[in-house]
Design a protein that fits this description.
Layout: E1 3-7, H1 12-23, E2 27-32, H2 39-48, E3 52-58, E4 65-71, E5 74-80, H3 86-94, E6 100-103, H4 110-115, H5 117-137, E7 142-148, H6 171-187, E8 198-204, E9 206-208, H7 227-235, E10 242-245, E11 257-258, E12 260-262, H8 263-279, E13 283-289, E14 295-296, H9 297-308, E15 314-317, E16 326-327, H10 332-338, H11 346-359
Parallel strand pairs: 1-2, 1-6, 2-5, 6-7, 7-8, 8-13, 9-12, 10-15, 11-16
Antiparallel strand pairs: 3-4, 4-5, 11-14
The structure holds nicotinamide-adenine-dinucleotide and uridine-diphosphate-N-acetylglucosamine (UD1).
Nicotinamide-adenine-dinucleotide binds near residues 14, 106 and 146.
Length: about 375
């Protein structure tokens, strides 16, 4: 079993991945500055994994709060810290050797990245560089990176293969592409005297849903911009209707088609990726994580209504800037390299998203 560092583990995808990794038997150190994550997410993860809280402590500075859970030889530590600060990251390497880092911490809102590009280059690119530098200082060279299908921009061919051109169309996508380039440079840097890096760039399609318990899920800050959280808010009466962005796309019903992937399938994909890296010689893997199936906005609305017995009123509106008609993964490389594929269907996605929302209508804030 491995000792893994999870940056951004108190966020949406990171928390679900923490649970999957604990259930696979690994021990974890999580670092998060809570800018968009919650201690409650990790508390729930520890509970679901059957760990007991051992202690909570604070160092001189407030940002160095720490929480510890344990069960038998397995442990989970949560550190409050900023990935841009070497001293914060170094805390994670202090008490034990870290075998691999899964790097989720970052900023992810496309519109915000257009308004505040420097924040995105700072956290996503400079932050990733800092993580890699502290890893190298500590002789840890196994790294799983949260990339995004957004690096493909407006892909010309669907399903999208990893060989499709990288041509992001917004600053968020540019920062993901820049980190991928940094990782290719790093993978190529090892010589006879330098042990090689083991790296996986995982390009997620559209992560949705929540753990089946309803105890962890997506907790958007302010008004959500992604489809599933908005459908949940409409279904629960928090907003009057879903605005469907475009009904004149070149798709069967005119609405946008996406490859929605259940967040627990995504989490298990990370488990498969890190175990593959640790078991194999140094290499760089670039993999799509998606289901390979596309669903339109109206199909999502209908599936949600049918699965949950709810009503989701909607209105057809004009297209949203920067959207494309279809984005669907070719997931065959991940299947063959990791022995992983999605197993949760659209009904499971809709049921789990709705259970999380109903149990936590205000997210972790209540
Ligand atoms: P999230 O915002 O829920 O999680 C990110 C976590 O990182 C949060 O807990 C936040 O507090 C933390 N964080 C941010 N800046 C930090 C810093 N400077 N230091 C320490 N912690 C910091 O986002 P998510 O949806 O879980 O996404 C995780 C990763 O996956 C991101 O890198 C994102 O770009 C990528 N990704 C997400 C999606 C998606 O649809 N959610 C799609 C593709 C890629
Ligand atoms: C968006 C981001 C993408 C990011 C991904 C996951 C843009 C242009 N792209 O992808 O970079 O990786 O989120 O965070 O922002 N829709 C509606 N009404 C709504 C919301 C969405 O009709 O109120 C439609 C969209 O037009 C799209 C589909 O639903 O066809 C999915 O939208 P969304 O969940 O925002 O994801 P993406 O746009 O695919």
């Amino acid at each position: 079993m491995a000792n893994l560092l999870i940056t951004g583990g108190a966020g949406y995808i990171g928390s679900h991945t923490c649970l999957a990794l604990l259930q696979m038997g690994h021990s974890l150190v999580v670092i998060d500055d809570f800018s968009n994550g919650s201690v409650d997410a990790i508390r729930a993860v520890a509970r679901l994994a059957g760990l007991q809280q051992r202690s909570r402590s604070a160092s001189g500075q407030a940002r160095h709060h720490q929480w510890h859970w344990q069960q038998g030889g397995q442990h989970l530590t949560l550190l409050e810290g900023d990935i841009r600060l070497a001293a914060d990251l170094q805390l994670a390497f202090e008490d034990q050797a870290i075998d691999a880092v899964l790097h989720f911490a970052g900023l992810k809102a496309v519109a915000e990245s257009v308004a505040k590009p420097l924040d995105y280059w700072n956290v996503n690119v400079a932050g990733s560089r800092q993580v890699l530098e502290v890893m190298a200082d500590n002789h840890c060279r196994t790294f799983v990176f949260s990339s995004s299908a957004t690096v493909y921009g407006m892909a010309e061919r669907v399903p999208i293969a990893e060989t499709s051109p990288v041509q992001p169309i917004n600053p968020y996508g540019q920062t993901k592409a820049a980190v991928e380039q940094m990782l290719r440079d790093l993978a190529a840097s090892s010589g006879p005297a330098e042990p090689g890096w083991r790296i996986a760039c995982l390009r997620y399609f559209n992560p949705v849903g929540a753990h089946e318990s309803g105890a962890i899920g997506e907790d958007p800050d302010g008004v959500p911009s992604n489809l599933l959280p908005l459908i949940c808010q409409v279904a629960s009466g928090q907003r009057p209707a879903l605005q469907v962005y475009g009904s004149d796309w070149a798709t069967p019903d005119g609405t946008g088609v996406r490859d929605y992937i259940h967040v627990m399938d995504l989490a298990e994909g990370h488990g498969a990726a890190v175990e593959t890296l640790l078991a194999e010689p140094p290499q760089l893997l670039t993999l799509n994580l998606g289901s390979g199936r596309g669903h339109s906005v109206l199909q999502m609305v209908q599936a949600f209504e049918h699965t949950n017995g709810t009503s989701v009123p909607y209105e057809l509106c004009s297209r949203r800037a920067g959207d494309s008609a279809v984005s669907v993964a070719d997931p065959s490389v991940a299947r063959s390299r990791l022995g992983w594929q999605t197993s949760r269907d659209l009904a499971t996605i809709c049921r789990d998203a709705w259970r999380w929302h109903q149990q936590n209508p205000s997210g972790y804030a209540q």
